[in-house]
Amino acid sequence: MVVTRAAEQSASLISKLEEAGAEAVSFPVLQIVKVNLDPEAKALLQRLEEFDWLVFTSANGVGCFLQWLDESGKKLTAQKIAAVGPKTASRLQESGISIDLIPDKYEGKELARDLMKSVKPGSRVLIPKGNLAKATVTDALQHLAKVTEITVYETRKAMPSIEMLPGKVDVIVFMSPSSVVYFGEAAGDRQQLYHQNTAAACVGPVTEEKAKEFGFHKRISATDYTEEGIIKAVKSYFREETTS
Fold it and tell me: What is the pTM of this model?
């Protein structure tokens, strides 16, 4: 199996895959980079107490936002905190931050639906995000609340050596649509070798749709958008393959 996550984020998934009996290698096609906040964004952090809600749609957003918060000398006050899923929530809890809202299904649409039920009209909502993040929550709340987005990290393309890829690959793990795109660019002409016989294990339907667009005939889509969900989906796929 090939894991396309950023190098600093792949160890956990690779370890779990190996525990499950798979041979896994890292082929990091992207990197996560904390951005340099512009003066407007820095001024925003100084007015953090004006916000009623902080909404985190990724663990990367949590890590980079908390770094900026620490560097600015600001502290969270009485804001309510929403997290898209358990990994994002865990990053917050590691810093002693309590979670007020987490959806049952770990995706942006579900987070947006739950927030629409919880956020009071006229509330101020701050969403620390990455440069490629969709505006799902913002779009859902814009007629209910005053929503501000702040980009705290960028997802950038990495170009790992093609020699890092093993000769035979049964599964390639994609945790985002951008990882599918960047894998295609990193693999070059060699990507055609995988489209027919290699399964693209995708963290959800949006990522699966991108894998389909890029030519992967075999696709696995996790219904639980976590590392554990990916592993469960892969196991289920291969059980069905061997019994069919």
Answer: 0.87
